[in-house]
Design goal:
2 copies of one chain form a homodimer. With about 400 residues, chain A is an alpha/beta fold. Chain A is built from 12 helices and 20 strands. In chain A, the strands form 4 sheets. Chain A has an 8-stranded mixed β-sheet, sandwiched between helices. Chain A has a 4-stranded mixed β-sheet with strand order 5-4-7-8. Chain A has a 4-stranded antiparallel β-sheet with strand order 13-18-20-19, sandwiched between helices. In chain A, helix 6 runs parallel beside helix 8.
């Protein structure tokens, strides 16, 4: 007998039929003798409708009222799932954020979790009552008002609850069957991974593999919560996100991620004087622009240098304006380009395995793909290339690292 | 400067445009220097949607979960109205039942109000913050869960809040312009009343003039809350529901009400023995059937009697089954008839004014309308007639008592 947390997203609870399907999944875990806490999102479409109303009512809205309105979505689902379970003869009750209480700070709209008081819920779990918690919401004790964790916060709610309940596993049910070696819409031979480490998942998530919220993965890693990503529509095991120690045979490369939410800026002919980097990146940081990859090439005479870096595509114009306004930065010309993509190969095994980067450069060169920028970290090698080559690059690397599924 | 409560029903807050209209009405009261608490219903259609989902999820549902789901409707409106007011530059915040707290017993789905702790809200009102309370909902401290007051409970929420805040007036905004002498859809010359007493309003409300919930009128009477019924769409004064003392020139008859939710049962040839009435009505009472009008005619020889009474139309079959199963009741035949209507003339003035009933019987006789049952109370005379004569009877009586508006 184990204590588990199951989390279902908006498409999994979009209507009463789907909620009944969710209840059946819960029933299986109950029948297997498990204590089950469930975390639910709002029914698909509900949050968007509520957010639209809020924006119509007040474009520059009070985040406290936003939270009050939007949290109603998860409240509705939690009650409906508890009712559906009861209708199947399973003891169940709903828990709203303020009832637990699920305590957060008072940064409404993007609150951080402070403490989850699970004493009462744990007692009900021991009595074999399924506890259905409304995701995404908490309470700020400072003002006794509803808070929300920000969009996608239900994953984080679930992982935090699993940590607080000391659950054996946190199952995140979604509309995909797990975590893949790469985007299966782009590469038909992408394989579902049985296991992936927190660190690899963090890199995958932040690079646009939209399976799990980055924040929930970081929380799972910090509290050592075993997370499983699986489909609410297919009856198959999904992908386990776990600590590195749990994976005996580590892959050198676990996956290939890509992100086209990047833009490149090159400053040509920058005077190579001490402090020039801080003169360039200081104003960008002050302007709240997140700089990612950075390379600097020193010219032959050592007097001038070219600096290239990437920023989020949405910030490209702003970044160029900031740089043009920064008088201290001397350069010959500034080139902005948002038609680029960042491709990353990710794997904890590369810590102990040489030649990963070389394999990447070779595979790309073979296809005639030019690399603009390279950056590496302990478990990742990333390159920036022209966006037009995205699919060719991802497919080639997927094959080069032996990730393709058997035909 | 006065403290007032304004209540807006579902059609008045059906979308953001209407909520903005409501906010304008609130702004006028604020600009006039008043302290304003607002009570809102769910947006029209929302409650029905939520109730349908609950019934789909679980036909025999747990009332605690029903309350959790359905209360979300008023929660949404309270946040949206607070936002809309803020957008107009008016300080405002929403209050949910559990935040006030609006304490009730734990009879979920039909909770009774125990106590409203208005200390914090009163402080905000003194700071000229508009307080928008979600109607219809409260909290049961016994189980720390959301309760609802039952359908239409928002009127009761508003009157209870007005009593707790010692407000000068409770304005109930609705989709009609006030209380009329009779149903204006049936009688075009019906007049809007400037004032009506609590007792008259109670009779009108319970007889199907669906302007105010009976329960809210009874609460207003008990706590002496001055209630005004008015339209959220027209800028006109409505009808004040007040204590009799506030009405100097009392009408003998204030209004004509009708109810077609009645059925008549006649037991012909009942043995006229002591205790026969209790043998008839005891089983009906035990079967939770509400008996209204009762008449008994003794036959010439005094040995047999006919007993006629009314029950709610929905209970007609059940009542007949109960009587047939009651062996102690001896009668020749049982006649049930749901094709009847109850017409009532209502007015506190009839306490001190004779001839009201005579005028009624005369007016009906003149039109050839046969009266089946008569019952009277201090401020009301009711007759049961064939349903086909409803409109003719109401129009004739409206004219007979001088209630017609001038052409």
């Amino acid at each position: 007998m184990a204590r588990i947390v199951m989390k279902f997203g908006g498409t999994s609870v979009a209507d009463i039929d789907r909620i009944r399907n969710v209840a059946n999944r819960v029933k299986k875990e109950v029948d297997a003798g498990n204590q089950v806490a469930v975390v639910v999102s709002a029914m698909a479409g509900t949050t968007d409708q509520l957010v639209n109303w809020v924006n119509e009512a007040s474009p520059l809205h009070d985040a406290r009222e936003y939270d009050t309105v939007v949290a109603a979505g998860e409240q509705i689902t939690s009650g409906l799932l508890a009712l559906t379970l009861q209708d199947m003869g399973i003891a169940a009750r709903s828990w709203l954020g303020w009832q637990i209480p699920f305590k957060t700070d008072n940064v409404h709209g993007a609150a951080r979790i402070k403490e989850i008081d699970t004493a009462k819920m744990a007692q009900r779990l021991d009595e074999n009552v399924v506890c259905v918690m409304a995701g995404f919401q908490g309470i700020s004790e400072e003002d006794n008002r509803i808070t929300t964790l920000g969009r996608g916060g239900s994953d984080t709610s679930a992982v935090a609850l699993a940590a607080a309940l000391d659950a054996e596993r946190c199952d995140i049910y979604t509309d995909v069957e797990g975590v893949y070696t790469t985007d299966p819409r782009m590469v038909p031979r992408a394989r579902k991974l049985d296991k992936i480490t927190y660190e690899e998942m963090l890199e995958m998530a932040s690079l646009g593999a939209k399976v799990l919220q980055t924040r929930s993965v970081a929380m799972a890693m910090n509290h050592n919560v075993r997370v499983q990503v699986l489909s609410s529509f297919a009856e198959k095991p999904g992908t386990l996100v776990v600590d590195e120690d749990e994976i005996v045979e580590k892959q050198v490369v676990s996956g290939i991620a890509y992100s086209n939410n990047e833009a490149k800026i090159t400053l040509v002919g920058v005077e190579n004087t001490p402090g020039v980097a801080s003169e360039i990146f200081g104003p960008l940081s002050a302007g709240n622009i997140n700089v990612d990859m950075i390379v600097q090439n020193i010219s032959e005479d050592g007097l001038k240098t070219d600096v290239t870096f990437t920023v989020p595509a949405a910030d490209l114009d702003k970044a160029q304006d900031v740089l043009k306004a920064a008088d201290a930065v001397k350069y010959d010309s500034l080139i902005g380009d948002s038609d680029v993509v960042k491709i990353s190969v990710i794997g904890v095994g590369m810590r102990s395995h040489a030649g990963v980067a070389a394999t990447m450069f070779h595979a790309l060169a073979e296809k005639g793909i030019n690399i603009h920028v390279i950056s590496t970290s302990e478990i990742k090698v990333s390159v920036l290339i022209d966006a037009a080559y995205t699919e060719l690059a991802v497919r080639s690397l997927h094959t080069a690292y032996g990730l393709d599924a058997e035909e």
